[in-house]
Amino acid sequence: MWSEEKLHDLLTTPSKRLIDDLSRLDGDIMILGAGGKMGPTMSILAARAVKEGKQDKKVFAVSRFSDEKTRKELEENGVIVIRADLQSSADIAALPDVRNIIFMVGRKFGTDGSEALTWGMNAVVPTLVLERFKGATFVVFSSGNIYAQVPPSSGGSRETDRPFPIGEYTQSCIARERIFEYYSRIYGTKVLIFRLSYAIALEYGVISDIAQKVVNEEPINLGNACFNCIWQGDANESALRCLLHATSPAATINITGPEIAGVRYVAERLGELLGKAPSFTGTPGEAAYLENSCKAISMLGYPSVSLETMIEYQAQWIKDGGRYINKPTHFEEKKGVY
Ligand SMILES: NC(=O)c1ccc[n+]([C@@H]2O[C@H](COP(=O)([O-])OP(=O)(O)OC[C@H]3O[C@@H](n4cnc5c(N)ncnc54)[C@H](OP(=O)(O)O)[C@@H]3O)[C@@H](O)[C@H]2O)c1
To answer: What's domain 4-199+230-257+290-303's superfamily in CATH?
Structure first.
C-alpha cells in the first residue's frame, strides 16, 4: 500500500554506494533551487547518507521556500535551510562558503511569452553564482532536450553530439551550460553538466502524465512516440555522486534510464494494471528526444528501479489513491514551446 510517507522514505533512503561516495567527498554540500520537485528529497537523501556514513558534513538547501511545510520537513531531517532569492546578488553573497554545490535552480514552464525571465534565470543566475563560488565544485542540472530529436535506432544522443536546441527554453539551457564551461576553463571551477531526462516520482512525471490520461479515458498523443526516464531517487543519488566526477574543463553526462519507453507500451501496460483500455491519437513520430545513458551507467552503475517497476509503482500509487501534483511535463512538445 503506497502512502506519501512510503514514497518519501523510498526516495530518501541512501544506498551503500551513495554513503561510500559521500564519505570520499571533501567538504559540505549545498543544493541551490532545493524547493522544487526534486530538491527536497535530494537534500534529505544527502543528509541521511552523511548521517549513516558518520560524516562530519553539513547539507544546506537553498531556495525561496514559498512552501513552509517543505522547509519544516527539511529541518526535521537535519538539513540546514537557507531562504534566499538566487536572482539577488546580495542573497548570493550571504550564502556560506561551501565546496560542493548542486545547481538545480532553473525555469522552463511559462517561457513562451516571458522569454526574458527564462534567460535571466538560466543564464544570468549562473553568472552571479559562479562569480561568488569560482573555487567550488558544481553539478549543474541541464536537459536532454538540448539535443536533436533522433530515431530509437540511433541508441539515443551521446554527450559528444552537437546540441540542437529548439525554442528559447533549450537555448537558455545551452547558455547555462556554456557559462559554466567558460568559468571552468578560465577559473578552474570544477563542473559536471548533468543532462537529465525525466525524473519519475509517482506524484508527477511522464508515466504519471500518461496514467492520468489512461484513468480519465483521454486520448494519448503518439506524436512523441518514445522517451527516456529515471526514478527520481536514482537521479538524485546520481547528482550527489557526480560531485566526485566534476572536472576542469567541464565534463558532461546524460542521466536517464537504460530503457527506451514507448508511449503506447507504457499506456497499454498501465491500462492492463488499472483495468482500463487506453485510446490514442496522432501519428507516431519517427524521432524523439532520446539520450544514450551508457557513459553514466558505466560510471555510476545501473539505476536501482527499472522502467517496468516504475510503471507498476505508478499503477499501484493510483489504486491506493496517491495524489497527482498537476505539474505536467509536456513531454509531447516537439517544437520547444513551453
Ligand atoms: N524534473 C525533471 O524531470 C527534470 C528534467 C530535466 C531537467 N530538469 C531540471 O532540473 C532542475 C530541478 O528539477 P525540478 O523538477 O526539481 O525543478 P523545479 O520543480 O522547477 O524546481 C526548481 C526550484 O528552484 C527554486 N527557485 C526558482 N527560482 C528561484 C530563485 N529566484 N531563488 C531561489 N530558488 C528559486 C524554486 O523553488 P522555491 O519556490 O522554493 O524558490 C523551484 O521550485 C530544474 O532546473 C529543471 O529544469 C528537471
So the answer is: NAD(P)-binding Rossmann-like Domain (3.40.50.720)
The pLDDT, as a whole number, for residue 335 is 87
73 CA distance to ligand 1 middle (Å): 18
For 150, the grid coordinates are 533522433
Pocket test for ligand 1, best of 11, 44, 104, 236 (most atoms within 8 A of CB): 104
CA distance 323 to 37: 14
Name every protein residue with a CB atom under 6 angstroms from any ligand 1 atom. Answer: 33, 35-39, 63-66, 85-87, 104-106, 108, 141, 143, 196, 198-199
- Indicate whether this model's pTM tops 0.85: yes
Burial of 94 (0-12, 13-18, 19+ CB in 10 A): exposed
Q: Which of 224, 248, 236, 153 is nearest to 196 (CA)?
A: 236
Average pLDDT of the chain to the nearest whole number: 97
φ and ψ at 263, to 5 degrees? Answer: -60, -40
Where do the structural domains in the chain lie, given as residue ranges? 4-199+230-257+290-303
Cβ burial of 324 (10 Å; 0-12, 13-18, 19+) is: middle
At 166, the pLDDT band (50, 70, 90 cuts) reads: very high
Q: Mutate which of 141, 177, 253, 289 to test ligand 1's pocket (most atoms within 8 Å of Cβ)? A: 141
Here the cell at position 117 is: 525571465
What is the structure's pLDDT at 220? 97
Contact criterion met (CB below 8 Å) for 41 and 203: no
Cβ atoms of 49 and 240 closer than 8 Å: yes
How many Cα atoms are found within 13 Å in the side-chain-facing hemisphere of 177?
24
